[in-house]
Amino acid sequence: MDLVLIDALEVDTVIGVYDWERTITQTLRLDLELGTDIRPAAAGDDIAQTLDYAAISKRIAGFAGEHQFALVETFAERLAETLRAEFAIAWLRLTVRKPGAVAAASAVGVAIARGSRPGDA
Ligand SMILES: Nc1nc2c(c(=O)[nH]1)N=C([C@H](O)[C@@H](O)CO)CN2
């Protein structure tokens, strides 16, 4: 399986479990691995035959602006569902980091993988 990559995508959203977090916008940093077969796009040199990382990045920014979750877990799960529903993504790994949430850490967050890799049972 081939991958289309989006690294360190920063999006602004309202997120957090504390009351003060409901009043501000915070930045999340996302890494995505999007499973697909890039050979048809490469053969035809055709953007329509692959996952358009620009379109997906724009959709993620829109998703972040549309939703207000408490947990990064919920953000990750709902975003993965949305992307898999709207784009031809066979499998994805999504990492959501919340920089600055824990002062002693450069970032905290979650990583999930959803969908089926070719060859999986
Ligand atoms: N596993 C999680 N732990 C925590 C989360 C979270 O989303 N997932 N969130 C918070 C607070 O919102 C924190 O980020 C504020 O600094 C605490 N723990």
UniProtKB/TrEMBL annotation:
One of the GO BP terms on file: folic acid biosynthetic process
Domain of life: Bacteria
Catalysis: reaction(s): 7,8-dihydroneopterin = 7,8-dihydromonapterin; 7,8-dihydroneopterin = 6-hydroxymethyl-7,8-dihydropterin + glycolaldehyde
Keyword Isomerase: yes
GO cellular component: cytoplasm
EC number: 4.1.2.25
InterPro entries xrefs: Dihydroneopterin_aldolase, FolB_dom, GTP-CH-I_C/QueF
UniProt xrefs under Gene3D superfamilies: 3.30.1130.10
Coiled-coil region(s): none
Annotated ranges, domain Dihydroneopterin aldolase/epimerase: 4-114
SUPFAM superfamilies: Tetrahydrobiopterin biosynthesis enzymes-like (SSF55620)
Transmembrane segments: none
Pathway this chain belongs to: Cofactor biosynthesis; tetrahydrofolate biosynthesis; 2-amino-4-hydroxy-6-hydroxymethyl-7,8-dihydropteridine diphosphate from 7,8-dihydroneopterin triphosphate: step 3/4
GO function term, MF aspect, one: dihydroneopterin aldolase activity
One Pfam family here: FolB
Alphabetic keyword roster: Folate biosynthesis, Isomerase, Lyase
Family stated for the protein in its record: Belongs to the DHNA family.
PANTHER family noted in UniProt: DIHYDRONEOPTERIN ALDOLASE 1-RELATED
Main function: Catalyzes the conversion of 7,8-dihydroneopterin to 6-hydroxymethyl-7,8-dihydropterin.
Protein name as catalogued: 7,8-dihydroneopterin aldolase
Gene label: folB
